[in-house]
Amino acid sequence: STGDGGGELRKAYRMLARKYHPDKNPAGRDMFEKIKMAYDILLPVVEAGGKIAGAGHGDDRRADDDDEDDDGSALGIVGGAGALNALGLLIRTQVLLCRRYPAEIGVYKYPAYAMLLLVLQIPAGDGGACMMAPVRARFVKAAVELLFQTCLVSPLNAEELVAEGGVPVLARLLRHYVGVYEEPDRTFGARHRRADEDLVLAIVTHVVRTLSGISYFPPGRDAVLALASDGTFCADWTRCLDGRHWGDAPLLKKYALEGVANLARHASLQHRFVEAGVAWPLLRATLCYDASLEGVAAELGEGARRAT
Predict the structure, then answer these.
(1) DSSP state at residue 248
(2) With contact defined as beta carbons under 8 Å apart, do 201 and 139 qualify?
(3) How far apart are alpha carbons 140 and 137 in whole angstroms?
(4) pLDDT in tens, 173-183
(5) In contact, 233 and 171? CB cutoff 8 Å
(6) Per-residue pLDDT tens for 106-159?
(7) DSSP 8-state symbol, 195
(8) N or C: which end of the chain has fewer CB within 10 A?
(9) Residue whose C-alpha is closest to residue 142's, from 73, 56, 202
Protein backbone atom coordinates (compact mmCIF):
# COMPACT_ATOMS: atom_id res chain seq x y z
CA SER A 1 0.00 0.00 0.00
CA THR A 2 1.25 3.50 -0.83
CA GLY A 3 -1.51 5.49 0.83
CA ASP A 4 -0.20 5.10 4.42
CA GLY A 5 3.40 6.06 3.72
CA GLY A 6 4.69 2.52 4.10
CA GLY A 7 2.90 1.75 7.39
CA GLU A 8 1.60 -1.58 6.17
CA LEU A 9 5.04 -2.56 4.90
CA ARG A 10 6.67 -1.64 8.23
CA LYS A 11 4.04 -3.59 10.14
CA ALA A 12 4.62 -6.69 8.02
CA TYR A 13 8.39 -6.30 8.32
CA ARG A 14 8.31 -6.01 12.12
CA MET A 15 6.11 -9.09 12.41
CA LEU A 16 8.38 -11.21 10.21
CA ALA A 17 11.56 -9.78 11.74
CA ARG A 18 10.42 -10.79 15.22
CA LYS A 19 9.61 -14.28 13.97
CA TYR A 20 12.93 -14.91 12.21
CA HIS A 21 15.37 -12.76 14.22
CA PRO A 22 18.49 -14.85 15.01
CA ASP A 23 18.33 -13.91 18.70
CA LYS A 24 14.98 -15.69 19.01
CA ASN A 25 15.25 -18.15 16.14
CA PRO A 26 18.85 -19.26 15.40
CA ALA A 27 17.65 -21.27 12.40
CA GLY A 28 15.97 -18.23 10.88
CA ARG A 29 19.08 -16.17 10.10
CA ASP A 30 18.96 -16.70 6.31
CA MET A 31 15.26 -15.88 6.11
CA PHE A 32 15.76 -12.80 8.33
CA GLU A 33 18.45 -11.47 6.00
CA LYS A 34 16.24 -12.03 2.94
CA ILE A 35 13.30 -10.26 4.61
CA LYS A 36 15.52 -7.32 5.53
CA MET A 37 16.90 -7.08 2.00
CA ALA A 38 13.40 -7.08 0.50
CA TYR A 39 12.29 -4.44 3.02
CA ASP A 40 15.25 -2.19 2.24
CA ILE A 41 14.43 -2.42 -1.48
CA LEU A 42 10.68 -1.90 -1.21
CA LEU A 43 10.41 0.79 1.48
CA PRO A 44 11.82 3.68 -0.63
CA VAL A 45 9.48 2.70 -3.47
CA VAL A 46 6.40 2.61 -1.25
CA GLU A 47 7.26 5.85 0.54
CA ALA A 48 7.83 7.60 -2.80
CA GLY A 49 4.15 7.17 -3.58
CA GLY A 50 4.72 6.72 -7.28
CA LYS A 51 7.10 9.70 -7.66
CA ILE A 52 10.16 7.65 -8.52
CA ALA A 53 12.02 8.63 -11.66
CA GLY A 54 15.58 8.55 -12.90
CA ALA A 55 18.03 6.47 -10.89
CA GLY A 56 17.24 3.04 -9.64
CA HIS A 57 15.40 1.66 -12.64
CA GLY A 58 18.03 -0.88 -13.60
CA ASP A 59 19.14 -1.87 -17.07
CA ASP A 60 15.67 -1.40 -18.57
CA ARG A 61 15.61 2.30 -17.69
CA ARG A 62 17.19 4.49 -20.36
CA ALA A 63 18.62 7.97 -20.11
CA ASP A 64 16.06 9.41 -22.49
CA ASP A 65 13.03 8.09 -20.56
CA ASP A 66 12.35 11.53 -19.08
CA ASP A 67 11.53 12.73 -22.58
CA GLU A 68 9.03 9.89 -22.91
CA ASP A 69 7.06 10.54 -19.70
CA ASP A 70 4.49 12.71 -21.47
CA ASP A 71 4.18 10.74 -24.69
CA GLY A 72 0.95 8.98 -23.72
CA SER A 73 2.74 5.78 -22.71
CA ALA A 74 0.95 5.80 -19.33
CA LEU A 75 -2.54 5.81 -20.86
CA GLY A 76 -4.86 3.72 -18.68
CA ILE A 77 -2.51 3.77 -15.66
CA VAL A 78 -3.96 5.62 -12.68
CA GLY A 79 -1.33 8.12 -11.53
CA GLY A 80 0.24 8.63 -14.93
CA ALA A 81 3.92 8.31 -15.81
CA GLY A 82 5.09 8.45 -12.19
CA ALA A 83 2.90 5.52 -11.24
CA LEU A 84 4.01 3.60 -14.33
CA ASN A 85 7.65 4.04 -13.34
CA ALA A 86 7.02 3.06 -9.71
CA LEU A 87 5.01 0.01 -10.70
CA GLY A 88 7.72 -0.99 -13.14
CA LEU A 89 10.34 -0.86 -10.39
CA LEU A 90 8.16 -2.93 -8.06
CA ILE A 91 7.58 -5.50 -10.78
CA ARG A 92 11.27 -5.79 -11.65
CA THR A 93 12.07 -6.18 -7.95
CA GLN A 94 9.61 -9.07 -7.71
CA VAL A 95 11.12 -10.70 -10.80
CA LEU A 96 14.55 -10.49 -9.16
CA LEU A 97 13.28 -12.02 -5.91
CA CYS A 98 11.56 -14.87 -7.78
CA ARG A 99 14.79 -15.63 -9.61
CA ARG A 100 16.99 -15.56 -6.52
CA TYR A 101 14.71 -17.18 -3.96
CA PRO A 102 12.34 -19.50 -5.84
CA ALA A 103 12.07 -22.08 -3.07
CA GLU A 104 11.22 -19.53 -0.40
CA ILE A 105 8.73 -17.62 -2.54
CA GLY A 106 7.19 -20.74 -4.03
CA VAL A 107 5.47 -21.66 -0.77
CA TYR A 108 3.23 -18.59 -1.04
CA LYS A 109 0.39 -17.98 -3.47
CA TYR A 110 1.03 -14.88 -5.57
CA PRO A 111 -1.59 -12.33 -4.48
CA ALA A 112 -1.47 -9.64 -7.16
CA TYR A 113 -2.57 -11.25 -10.44
CA ALA A 114 -5.65 -9.03 -10.63
CA MET A 115 -3.45 -5.91 -10.52
CA LEU A 116 -0.91 -7.27 -13.01
CA LEU A 117 -3.58 -8.28 -15.50
CA LEU A 118 -5.27 -4.91 -15.13
CA VAL A 119 -2.12 -2.99 -16.08
CA LEU A 120 -1.54 -5.37 -19.00
CA GLN A 121 -4.89 -4.52 -20.57
CA ILE A 122 -4.63 -2.69 -23.89
CA PRO A 123 -6.40 0.67 -23.39
CA ALA A 124 -9.23 1.47 -25.74
CA GLY A 125 -9.19 4.66 -27.73
CA ASP A 126 -5.71 4.88 -29.26
CA GLY A 127 -5.56 1.59 -31.14
CA GLY A 128 -2.93 0.20 -28.80
CA ALA A 129 -0.45 2.92 -29.72
CA CYS A 130 0.59 3.50 -26.12
CA MET A 131 1.67 -0.14 -25.84
CA MET A 132 4.34 0.54 -28.45
CA ALA A 133 5.91 3.48 -26.61
CA PRO A 134 9.33 2.33 -25.36
CA VAL A 135 8.56 3.03 -21.68
CA ARG A 136 5.28 1.12 -21.81
CA ALA A 137 6.77 -1.72 -23.86
CA ARG A 138 9.55 -2.24 -21.30
CA PHE A 139 6.91 -2.21 -18.57
CA VAL A 140 4.86 -4.86 -20.41
CA LYS A 141 7.97 -7.01 -20.88
CA ALA A 142 8.73 -6.93 -17.14
CA ALA A 143 5.11 -7.57 -16.14
CA VAL A 144 4.75 -10.60 -18.42
CA GLU A 145 8.07 -11.96 -17.19
CA LEU A 146 6.76 -11.67 -13.63
CA LEU A 147 3.69 -13.70 -14.61
CA PHE A 148 6.00 -16.42 -15.87
CA GLN A 149 8.35 -16.33 -12.87
CA THR A 150 5.50 -16.62 -10.37
CA CYS A 151 4.16 -19.66 -12.24
CA LEU A 152 7.67 -21.12 -12.39
CA VAL A 153 8.20 -20.96 -8.61
CA SER A 154 4.83 -22.64 -7.94
CA PRO A 155 2.62 -24.57 -10.40
CA LEU A 156 -0.37 -23.66 -8.23
CA ASN A 157 0.14 -20.07 -9.35
CA ALA A 158 -0.42 -21.15 -12.95
CA GLU A 159 -3.89 -22.38 -12.08
CA GLU A 160 -4.56 -19.18 -10.14
CA LEU A 161 -3.47 -17.09 -13.13
CA VAL A 162 -5.89 -18.99 -15.35
CA ALA A 163 -8.69 -18.52 -12.82
CA GLU A 164 -8.01 -14.77 -12.72
CA GLY A 165 -8.50 -14.53 -16.50
CA GLY A 166 -4.86 -14.38 -17.50
CA VAL A 167 -5.12 -16.37 -20.73
CA PRO A 168 -7.38 -13.89 -22.61
CA VAL A 169 -5.17 -10.97 -21.52
CA LEU A 170 -2.03 -12.72 -22.74
CA ALA A 171 -3.74 -13.76 -25.98
CA ARG A 172 -4.66 -10.12 -26.69
CA LEU A 173 -1.07 -9.06 -26.06
CA LEU A 174 0.13 -11.78 -28.44
CA ARG A 175 -2.31 -10.60 -31.13
CA HIS A 176 -1.24 -6.97 -30.69
CA TYR A 177 2.52 -7.45 -30.74
CA VAL A 178 2.54 -10.12 -33.45
CA GLY A 179 0.47 -7.75 -35.58
CA VAL A 180 2.87 -4.90 -34.89
CA TYR A 181 5.90 -7.02 -35.77
CA GLU A 182 4.29 -8.05 -39.06
CA GLU A 183 3.83 -4.38 -39.99
CA PRO A 184 7.28 -2.84 -39.48
CA ASP A 185 6.27 0.34 -41.32
CA ARG A 186 3.13 0.91 -39.25
CA THR A 187 3.15 4.29 -37.52
CA PHE A 188 1.33 5.40 -34.39
CA GLY A 189 1.33 9.15 -34.82
CA ALA A 190 3.82 11.84 -33.90
CA ARG A 191 3.01 11.56 -30.20
CA HIS A 192 4.44 8.05 -29.89
CA ARG A 193 7.97 6.82 -30.35
CA ARG A 194 7.99 3.19 -31.40
CA ALA A 195 9.72 0.43 -29.43
CA ASP A 196 12.44 -1.33 -31.41
CA GLU A 197 11.91 -4.78 -32.89
CA ASP A 198 14.14 -6.51 -30.35
CA LEU A 199 11.94 -5.26 -27.52
CA VAL A 200 8.76 -6.35 -29.31
CA LEU A 201 10.30 -9.77 -29.95
CA ALA A 202 11.21 -10.05 -26.24
CA ILE A 203 7.61 -9.30 -25.25
CA VAL A 204 6.24 -11.91 -27.66
CA THR A 205 8.77 -14.45 -26.38
CA HIS A 206 7.73 -13.85 -22.75
CA VAL A 207 4.04 -14.11 -23.66
CA VAL A 208 4.54 -17.37 -25.57
CA ARG A 209 6.70 -18.84 -22.81
CA THR A 210 4.06 -18.01 -20.17
CA LEU A 211 1.16 -19.37 -22.22
CA SER A 212 3.16 -22.48 -23.05
CA GLY A 213 3.74 -23.18 -19.36
CA ILE A 214 0.10 -22.51 -18.45
CA SER A 215 -1.04 -24.88 -21.21
CA TYR A 216 0.69 -27.80 -19.54
CA PHE A 217 -2.30 -27.88 -17.16
CA PRO A 218 -5.84 -28.85 -18.26
CA PRO A 219 -7.42 -25.57 -17.04
CA GLY A 220 -4.92 -23.68 -19.21
CA ARG A 221 -5.78 -25.71 -22.30
CA ASP A 222 -9.49 -25.25 -21.63
CA ALA A 223 -8.99 -21.48 -21.35
CA VAL A 224 -7.14 -21.41 -24.70
CA LEU A 225 -9.86 -23.50 -26.35
CA ALA A 226 -12.49 -21.04 -25.12
CA LEU A 227 -10.91 -18.22 -27.14
CA ALA A 228 -9.55 -20.21 -30.11
CA SER A 229 -12.87 -20.60 -31.92
CA ASP A 230 -12.14 -17.90 -34.52
CA GLY A 231 -8.68 -19.27 -35.31
CA THR A 232 -6.84 -16.05 -34.45
CA PHE A 233 -4.95 -17.45 -31.48
CA CYS A 234 -3.71 -20.54 -33.33
CA ALA A 235 -2.77 -18.42 -36.35
CA ASP A 236 -0.72 -16.06 -34.16
CA TRP A 237 0.96 -19.02 -32.47
CA THR A 238 1.80 -20.54 -35.85
CA ARG A 239 3.42 -17.26 -36.91
CA CYS A 240 5.73 -17.58 -33.92
CA LEU A 241 6.96 -20.86 -35.41
CA ASP A 242 7.28 -20.07 -39.09
CA GLY A 243 10.22 -17.66 -38.81
CA ARG A 244 9.19 -15.43 -41.72
CA HIS A 245 8.97 -12.35 -39.51
CA TRP A 246 11.23 -13.27 -36.60
CA GLY A 247 14.31 -14.51 -38.39
CA ASP A 248 16.16 -17.06 -36.29
CA ALA A 249 14.63 -16.30 -32.83
CA PRO A 250 15.48 -19.75 -31.40
CA LEU A 251 13.98 -19.10 -27.97
CA LEU A 252 10.64 -18.00 -29.40
CA LYS A 253 10.48 -21.10 -31.60
CA LYS A 254 11.46 -23.32 -28.67
CA TYR A 255 8.68 -21.99 -26.43
CA ALA A 256 6.17 -22.05 -29.30
CA LEU A 257 7.02 -25.71 -30.01
CA GLU A 258 6.60 -26.57 -26.33
CA GLY A 259 3.26 -24.80 -26.39
CA VAL A 260 2.05 -26.76 -29.41
CA ALA A 261 3.03 -29.99 -27.66
CA ASN A 262 1.09 -28.98 -24.55
CA LEU A 263 -1.96 -27.61 -26.36
CA ALA A 264 -2.17 -30.55 -28.75
CA ARG A 265 -3.11 -32.78 -25.83
CA HIS A 266 -6.59 -31.39 -26.38
CA ALA A 267 -8.15 -32.99 -29.48
CA SER A 268 -10.11 -29.85 -30.44
CA LEU A 269 -6.97 -27.72 -30.28
CA GLN A 270 -5.19 -30.20 -32.55
CA HIS A 271 -7.80 -29.46 -35.22
CA ARG A 272 -7.53 -25.70 -34.64
CA PHE A 273 -3.78 -25.78 -35.14
CA VAL A 274 -4.02 -27.91 -38.28
CA GLU A 275 -6.52 -25.42 -39.71
CA ALA A 276 -4.06 -22.62 -38.86
CA GLY A 277 -1.36 -24.34 -40.93
CA VAL A 278 0.95 -25.38 -38.09
CA ALA A 279 1.95 -28.56 -39.95
CA TRP A 280 4.21 -26.67 -42.37
CA PRO A 281 6.49 -24.93 -39.84
CA LEU A 282 6.58 -28.15 -37.81
CA LEU A 283 7.64 -30.08 -40.91
CA ARG A 284 10.26 -27.46 -41.73
CA ALA A 285 11.64 -27.66 -38.18
CA THR A 286 11.78 -31.45 -38.42
CA LEU A 287 13.65 -31.39 -41.75
CA CYS A 288 16.13 -28.83 -40.42
CA TYR A 289 16.82 -30.81 -37.26
CA ASP A 290 20.38 -32.08 -36.95
CA ALA A 291 20.64 -34.88 -34.38
CA SER A 292 24.45 -34.73 -34.45
CA LEU A 293 24.33 -31.31 -32.78
CA GLU A 294 22.95 -32.88 -29.59
CA GLY A 295 26.21 -34.75 -29.09
CA VAL A 296 28.22 -31.59 -29.75
CA ALA A 297 26.11 -29.64 -27.26
CA ALA A 298 26.58 -32.36 -24.64
CA GLU A 299 30.36 -32.34 -25.16
CA LEU A 300 30.50 -28.57 -24.91
CA GLY A 301 28.45 -28.65 -21.73
CA GLU A 302 30.68 -31.29 -20.17
CA GLY A 303 33.78 -29.34 -21.17
CA ALA A 304 32.40 -26.19 -19.57
CA ARG A 305 31.63 -28.03 -16.34
CA ARG A 306 35.17 -29.42 -16.19
CA ALA A 307 36.65 -25.99 -16.85
CA THR A 308 34.78 -24.54 -13.90
Answers:
(1) S
(2) no
(3) 5
(4) 999 998 887 66
(5) yes
(6) 888 898 999 899 999 998 877 788 888 899 999 999 999 999 999 999 999 999
(7) P
(8) C
(9) 202
